[in-house]
Every structure is written in C-alpha cells, then in structure tokens.
Amino acid sequence: QVQLVESGGGLVQPGGSLRLSCTASGRNLSFYAVGWYRQAPEKQREWVATITRSESTMYADSVKGRFTMSRDNTKNTVNLQMTSLKPEDTAVYYCYSPGSTTTYWGQGTQVTVSS
Fold it and tell me: pLDDT tens digits for 92-110?
C-alpha cells in the first residue's frame, strides 16, 4: 500500500522560508514524478510544482524563483524549499505522485504566512 506523508508546514513571517517534505512508503519515489498542489480557504486547488523522474522541475508562475523542488533518494523523500514567502502562499500543501491507474496523495500540511 502506497502512502505519502507531508511534513514541515507551520507558521512563518512574510519573507521567511520553510521546507516541506513528502516521504513515501510502498513506492520508490525515484522512479516516479512527484508534485505539489495547494489549496487556500475558499479557493480552488492550485498546482505548485512537479519534479519528473529525470529530475526536471516545473513551477507555477506564482512560485517560480522562490520555490525549489529536490529529491533525497536516500530517504525516499521529495522536498519543496520555499523562500520569500508571502501571505498569499498560505494554504494546505499536498504532495502527489501519479501511478499507472491512480494518483497517490498525501494528507496535506498547513503553511501559514503571517506577521
């Protein structure tokens, strides 16, 4: 059974940084693309970033230049380093990893950017 678990969320001041992690069990993430979505209260879910199997990365325009995805294959983890955070980055962040017949999702981690 595949399980994705996010960690690293929290409260941070504007301009600060956080690193989110997505750790898998039951799946070797190095063989799959992994990405992040976020959902703010009363807003639609928004795609944030993806890292491909070949380690190419793609980012939404709203986070480009501030967020960076990377892999730590020794820990079967994908990280999302977030810098220069803004109040509009406040959301629940979900990691996902597509499979052949389904997409696996984590339970989400809350990020709040506020002074």
Answer: 999 999 988 899 999 999 9
